[in-house]
């Protein structure tokens, strides 16, 4: 199934009739059926396979297909999410030529976003017309626009340089790709295409495909613990033994050996993850750290590398990349970085993104343990932590009423912020089983804080109030504004002398090692406060 520069003879445009246009959300597999009309499919989102005459094609975002009458199609949904796709059927009226025969199967668009826009318009815009005749007219008009765009878009591909085929290989390497298919996308003969491709890339089309597949396999071998069979399939090889032979031919060593030797020089770019490495008794090759006094610095096996104080992670990123490139790392760990930054690190070394918000600290620890081969150590550490948390929770109850309400406030960046059930809240509320103030329920599970007003704090019913204040002048002014307000003594925690001014670290760090420290420090804090209160009471008597 290949594309040709000519899609339709313009003289036939008046003989095309659209008979169906719809948008679908598919949650299950679609059974196979035989097509009666020409069918244009646009997959906007989803993970699955489209089978055309039982030949598999991968479903990805912004993929297009044209199917002919008599073909069979079915869809297999491989993911947990819905497959979003557009389905358009049309027919030729009183036309008996083979113009469409040159265009069937996958459509390789030069301008996929524009083609997607035309498709969505065809489905949605006619519905806006109130009159049935106008709906039909609008539908027909948009059908002509779509077909005309297909014609001009394919012409653009035929006139473009070899970059079209190169980018296609980079994004569809896991599919069944051959030289003739790639040549047809550019409108060149296979032999001419091969000569041009090698001249511009330094490799033949098939060698370039192999290169991309092996590089992707190296990335998976470094960043996952997937089985070799699964990795082979995910990069386009159905036979894992053939994949192993190709991998060794290109890399010089088998993939199994590669996976065992390529995780020694790990660079960690998430400051909080240092606590996980500490808990696992593993020192990364290099790790990023930050504090208010020194700013960001990259600790290496030699000397720390300092960056300009007062600059954020994104401001130092390009300087950081230059330093990383000189280190030649095997793996870079990041978390919820912007896509363009993550792509930049991938040019330096294989990069794995450990989701910061969507996983809790236990998930972070376990994923890091998988990367460094310490799953058993992580499981043991978590079991021991749970035992310590249980003991600490029992000890805390000796010094605090379990129904007392806790509130955690941080003052920084010119604002008051209420902390929820992550960071310090994870230890106080989840591990020590203490009760948060009602306002904490408003904070989403993936959020650790929300902006809070002075009035909100003064109206709170907190029995115990934790306050963290940044060292800058403005934050200290906000603290004074809070404690000097005439309503400040009305807060139960203030009236009971149960206000605790604590440092940001380690109370804010979201890691295994920090939480282990906080179990002990929380018990100590409540114990010492209870002793002071008792001594004060005895003295007054």
Task: Write up what this structure looks like.
The protein has about 550 residues and is of the alpha/beta class. The chain has 4 domains: about 10-160, Jelly Rolls (Sandwich); about 185-260, Homeodomain-like (Arc Repressor Mutant, subunit A); about 265-370, Rossmann fold (3-Layer(aba) Sandwich), CATH 3.40.50; about 385-540, 3-Layer(aba) Sandwich (Rossmann fold), CATH 3.40.50. About 45% of the residues lie in helices and about 20% in strands. It has 19 helices and 21 strands. It has helices at about 110-125, 130-160, 165-170, 180-185, 190-200, 205-225, 230-235, 240-250, 255-260, 275-280, 315-325, 340-345, 360-370, 375-395, 425-430, 455-460, 475-485, 490-495, 510-540, and strands at about 15-25, 30-35, 40-45, 50, 55-60, 65, 70-75, 85-90, 105, 265-270, 285-290, 295-300, 305, 330-335, 350-355, 405-410, 415-420, 435, 450, 465-470, 500. A 6-stranded mixed beta sheet has the order 13-12-11-10-14-15. Strands 16, 17, 18, 19, 20 and 21 form a 6-stranded mixed beta sheet that branches. Strands 1-8-3-6-9 form a 5-stranded antiparallel beta sheet, with helices on one face. Helix 6 crosses helix 9 (about 255-260). The longest helix has 29 residues, at about 510-540. The model is unreliable at about 1-15 (pLDDT under 50). It comes from Salipaludibacillus agaradhaerens. It holds the Pfam family AraC_binding. GO terms for molecular function: DNA-binding transcription factor activity; sequence-specific DNA binding.
Q: Keywords for this structure?
A:
single chain; six-stranded mixed β-sheet; 43% helix; 4 domains; Arc Repressor Mutant, subunit A; disordered N terminus; Jelly Rolls; 541 residues; globular
């Amino acid at each position: 199934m290949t594309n040709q520069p000519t899609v339709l003879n313009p003289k036939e445009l008046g003989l095309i009739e659209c008979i169906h246009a719809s948008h679908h959300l598919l949650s299950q597999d679609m059974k196979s059926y035989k097509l009666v009309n020409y069918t244009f499919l646009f997959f906007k989102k989803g993970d699955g396979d489209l089978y055309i005459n039982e030949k598999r094609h991968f479903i990805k975002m912004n993929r297009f297909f044209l199917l002919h009458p008599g073909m069979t199609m079915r869809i297999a949904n491989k993911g947990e999410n819905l497959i979003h796709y557009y389905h358009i059927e049309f027919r030729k009226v009183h036309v008996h030529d083979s113009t469409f025969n040159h265009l069937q199967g996958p459509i390789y668009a030069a301008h996929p976003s524009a083609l997607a826009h035309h498709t969505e318009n065809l489905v949605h815009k006619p519905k806006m017309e109130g009159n049935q005749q106008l709906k039909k007219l609008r539908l027909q008009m948009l059908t002509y626009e779509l077909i005309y765009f297909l014609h001009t878009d394919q012409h653009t591909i035929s006139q473009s340089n070899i970059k079209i085929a190169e980018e296609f290989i980079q994004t569809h390497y896991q599919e069944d790709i051959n030289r003739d298919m790639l040549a047809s996308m550019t409108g060149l003969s296979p032999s001419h295409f091969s000569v041009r491709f090698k001249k511009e890339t330094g490799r033949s089309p098939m060698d370039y495909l192999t290169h991309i597949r092996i590089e992707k396999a190296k990335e998976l071998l470094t960043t996952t613990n997937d089985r070799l069979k699964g990795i082979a399939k995910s990069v386009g090889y159905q036979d894992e033994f053939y994949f192993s032979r190709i991998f060794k031919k290109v890399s010089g060593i088998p993939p199994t050996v590669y996976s065992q030797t390529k995780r020694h020089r790990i660079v960690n770019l998430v400051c909080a993850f240092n606590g996980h490495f500490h808990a696992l008794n593993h020192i990364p090759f290099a790790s990023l750290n930050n504090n208010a006094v020194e700013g960001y610095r990259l600790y290496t096996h030699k000397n720390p590398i300092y960056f300009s104080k007062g600059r954020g992670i994104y401001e130092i990123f390009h300087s950081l990349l230059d330093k990383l490139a000189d280190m030649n790392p095997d793996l870079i760990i990041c978390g919820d970085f912007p896509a363009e930054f993550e792509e930049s690190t991938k040019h330096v070394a294989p990069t794995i993104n450990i989701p910061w918000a969507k996983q809790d600290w236990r998930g972070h620890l376990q994923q890091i343990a998988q990367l460094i081969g310490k799953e058993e150590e992580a499981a043991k550490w978590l079991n021991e932590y749970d035992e310590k948390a249980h003991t600490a929770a029992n000890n805390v109850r000796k010094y605090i009423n379990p129904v007392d309400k806790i509130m955690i406030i941080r003052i920084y960046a010119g604002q008051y912020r209420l902390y929820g059930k992550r960071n310090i809240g994870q230890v106080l509320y989840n591990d020590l089983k203490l009760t948060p103030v009602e306002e904490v329920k408003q904070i989403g599970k993936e959020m650790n804080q929300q902006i809070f007003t002075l009035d909100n704090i003064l109206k709170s019913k907190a029995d115990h109030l934790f306050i963290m204040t940044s060292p800058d002048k403005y934050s200290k002014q906000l603290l004074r504004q809070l404690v000097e307000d005439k309503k400040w003594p009305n807060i139960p925690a203030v009236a009971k002398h149960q206000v605790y001014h604590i440092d940001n670290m380690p109370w804010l760090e979201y890691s295994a090692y920090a939480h282990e420290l906080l179990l002990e420090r929380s018990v100590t804090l409540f114990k010492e406060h209870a002793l002071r209160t008792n001594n004060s009471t005895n003295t007054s008597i």
